[in-house]
């Protein structure tokens, strides 16, 4: 079908806005990567605009040999892997009963769970609860208080509700109990949704620094984001001096900017690497169960 002039104008505006959005979002990312690979001299003279100038890996060599980075990196991986695994299990266990029509507490529990989306106990009561439970300065404080996120439970519940009830009735006649129906039937059907929720939870744990800021006083338990906070925001002289080794104060001052950008790249690289493998599930995973037949 031939497009009219108004259609061509509309599509032209859409393409233009799309390109503009891509440039606005992609340029800062490319700039950070370029700075991390550029020489200190080029950074000092502000020669870097888009691509690396005076390509060097000295910034990465300086950052990657810093022991505290690897300790915080290990902590973040632990929080992300263990936390995400427990999140998915708990979310499925919470969402499946809420999707079952014959569950007698379905309406009441749905109300109470939705209630927590709008009202919470507040920071101080939560802090007192966590300390009284003995979770302060333990690894579990990064996992257990956020075992389920209400919005994700709602998404998972909608996906379970999209499964035809006849499947469960047939399985029940064959002798399957609720747990069998959950793990052998329901979970495999909503795999795209679980893939998306896995990414949601993983990104949340990877970026979570506020819980560590409140509840983790021990530095050897703190995640990568706390390390970045010291490098980026506080510009800790101790951290910079340890990374700089025997560099002079002038060279160290110039390279501190490069160290910050290298730290950013190192921290986001794992989660960016995972994203393309889950991206294909996004549309189907979010809309699964959204339309009732």
Overview of this protein structure:
The chain is mainly alpha-helical and 293 residues long. Helices cover 72% and strands 0% of the residues. It has 15 helices and no strands. Helix 10 runs antiparallel to helix 14. The longest helix is centred in the N-terminal third of the chain and has 33 residues.
Topology, pairings included?
Blueprint: H1 5-37, H2 40-44, H3 58-64, H4 67-99, H5 106-118, H6 123-132, H7 150-161, H8 165-173, H9 178-189, H10 191-207, H11 210-215, H12 224-232, H13 237-244, H14 249-279, H15 282-287
In short, what is this structure?
The chain is 72% helix and 0% strand. The protein has 293 residues and is mainly α.
- Residue share in helix: over 70%
Order of helices and strands: HHHHHHHHHHHHHHH
How many E strands?
0
The averaged pLDDT comes out at 81
Largest sheet: none
- Tell me the span between the first and last alpha carbons: 32 Å
What general outline do the C-alpha atoms trace?
Answer: globular
Radius of gyration computed on alpha carbons: 24 Å
- Structural class comes to mainly alpha
Number of helices: 15
Task: Report the portion of residues in β strands.
Answer: under 5%
| pLDDT < 50 runs, ≥5 residues | none
